[in-house]
Specification:
Associates with stalled 50S ribosomal subunits. Binds to RqcP. This protein is an alpha+beta fold and about 600 residues long. The protein has helices at about 5-20, 75-85, 180-190, 195-200, 205-215, 230-250, 285-305, 310-335, 340-350, 385-430, 435-445, 485-495, 525-535, 580-590; strands at about 25-30, 35-40, 45-50, 60, 90-95, 100-110, 115-120, 130-135, 140-145, 255-260, 265-270, 280-285, 360-365, 375-380, 470, 480, 500-505, 515, 545-550, 555, 570, 575.
Length: about 600
Amino acid sequence: MALDGLVVNSIAHELNSKLVGGKIDRVHQPENDEILLYVRNNRENFKVVLSSSSSNPRVYIANKYNKENPLKAPMFCMLLRKHLQGGIITDITQVGFERIIKISIESYDELKDKSTKNLYIEIMGRHSNIILTHDKDSTIIDSIKRVPPSVSRARQILPAMTYTLPPAQDKIDPLKGCSLKSFINTLREFDGPISKAIYSNFLGISPTVAKEICYRSSIDFDAKGENLSRDDLSELYRTFSDIFTKVKNGEFSPCIVINEKLDKVVDFNCIDLTFYEGFSFIHDESISKIVEDYYITKDFKDRVHQRTSDLRKSISIKLDRLYNKQKKQQKELKQADNADIYKVKGELLTAYIYMIQKGMKSIEVDNFYDENMAKMTIELNENLTPSENTQKYFKKYNKLKTAKKELTEQMSISKDEIEYLENVLLSIENCENLEDLEDIKEELIKLGYARAPRKFKAKKEMDLTTKPNKFISSDGFTILVGKNNKQNDYLTLRIADPEDIWMHTKNIPGSHVIIKCAGVEVPDNTLLEGAMLAAYFSKGRMSSQVPVDYTMKKHVKKPSGSKPGMVIYETNNTIYVTPEEEMVSKLKES
């Protein structure tokens, strides 16, 4: 979910209680759309993250933030250092009940005059922004994202312009109060589910909070207001008022919802989300802690996706070319398969050469290569002699025979390259940290698929930056899964013993899986779980009945000169499984 007005209110309340009176010691900009403020207050140091990310905008006090800063600070970062560094935070508020936080900072300018600047953080999806203004006249000093008229005619964000708030939504502010009568009339007039009626008519309420209000009132989310009794709507109003009375008093219950079966974070809010029945909850006094835990993985995945867009595009273009090349090769090979017919025609022309005269366009002869001696019509070039026509067919035969051999070799090369690049794309999707991504980039640079940056220094062939995934089967066997080609080679060639079980999806890009057993017989249940992991960490993750080959590691070989992660194997068995995220999660938990 996105941060709604309710969550933003709790964040502003927490920031105000912890940071007001604090001094801004340092300012950094680790990402193009993210600012990090180092604040010292009451002998405590705080790291405040301000993000205007299009997909994950947020504001919070960080505990686990460890992004590296660029060697050269961006212009907006330098500007903030000039105006805010050394300044004192005097106030932090939510603007209205909107998703906007205003931080007021008092500092001295270069002439030693004291003035107040306002830092607005607008948390509005792709329109999110961080804007620095003068408090006195609301003049914009600059913003992390400039918005010229070509981007928005309605509202420009440019230096020297006057800052204006985004257009107000035609909704009721729940903090200003709403009478029972007005509440009931508003919901009854709405044509749609009652939960939608709540978040469509009241400011700062997300669908999640609207569902929670309905659930606490024992009312179906999808019921229509016009069909509800006055008592039902009165109970809804009571729950609604109770929640916002606590918000006004600064009483929050930050929580994060987790699906334990899948080991996944589902949702979060600053109030209890009791409608998530059957899920587990983690509560914390700090909404910042909840926000950080919710976004830490989500933000990383989005950042990796952004940073690899050029790389993925480049690989996809190469793959498209290879797919087209493969189609042409298959077409040419099909033609080459007809080589023997040209040999037969050449032999027949040789046998019946006495019947051929220059100027003939074709000749019909008995095909003595056919058991029925069927008639065959052979086309002739009227400008060639009988001997030249015969040689033409033999030349065509020899050419196609040679082409078939070459095409078979080229198709094998194309197939290997396609398999390799598809594995690379899968490895990018499986990245869990930036180190994994760097390993993939280094591999592509070495093989000539990507350009090397300046001062590029390759690591040793088998030096691992990160460790492969580790799981424990229900029978207690260790199962190792590679996350990229480098790890796949490391597992298969270095870690696996000859008697260990090696697994991989059949003809589908995926990870190498090793069941450590050292020759001990592996139970069927562990084999099934290993196959499940091989299928889950493959391109067949969303498919059913995925074929997984398995054999002892001693039957797996790496051909000389083959690309990373590429191996051949023999004497294998195949097991069919349907990947289940719940089972994978259980194995990881174990």
